[in-house]
Amino acid sequence: MVRELEFLLIKPDGVRRGLIGEVIRRLEAKGLRIVGLKMLRLTRECAERLYDVHRGKSFYEGLVEFMSSGPVVAVLVEGDGAVEVVRTMIGPTDGRRAPPGTIRGDYSTSVLENIVHAADSEERAKYEAGIAFDPSCDVHDRAV
């Protein structure tokens, strides 16, 4: 396997429900190495950039609003086949259909509030991490 980077975001519902430690525990238990970690509150503009691939879709506005509604945790991991491994661990987008044992299957019954987001390629992971780890994308950093 090829060592690669993957970006995962613990969404506002995952933070609100106290699942940060559980998500990180699962990543580390799987053998992935955390190489970046940050709690932030996304600005609306940066949430729009993060989900630019969905612009124009019916759920886009609600998603952007939700993702900028509270703190999130950005996690950059590295490991063999990290993108495939993480996407398998989180399960399908719809938590109602995600199998038990996946993060969404164990903790979500929603499409929007489904605990985590993960990039679908290493290229996209680098792009999304660049947004989340940019200080200008954190409401708190901009207020200082």
CATH class bucket:
Alpha Beta
- The coarse overall form would be globular
Query: How many helices?
Result: 8
Distance between the termini: 43 Å
| Sheet with the most strands, sense and barrel status | 4 strands, antiparallel
Order of strands, widest sheet: 2-3-1-4
**Assembly state:** single chain
N-to-C SSE string, H for helix and E for strand: EHHEHHEHHEHH
Helix content: 40-55%
What does this structure look like?
There is one protein chain. It contains eight helices and four strands. The N and C termini lie far apart (43 Å). A four-stranded antiparallel beta sheet has the order 2-3-1-4, sandwiched between helices. It has a single domain (3-143), classed as Nucleoside diphosphate kinase-like domain (Alpha-Beta Plaits). The radius of gyration is 14 Å and the shape is globular. 42% of the residues lie in helices and 19% in strands.
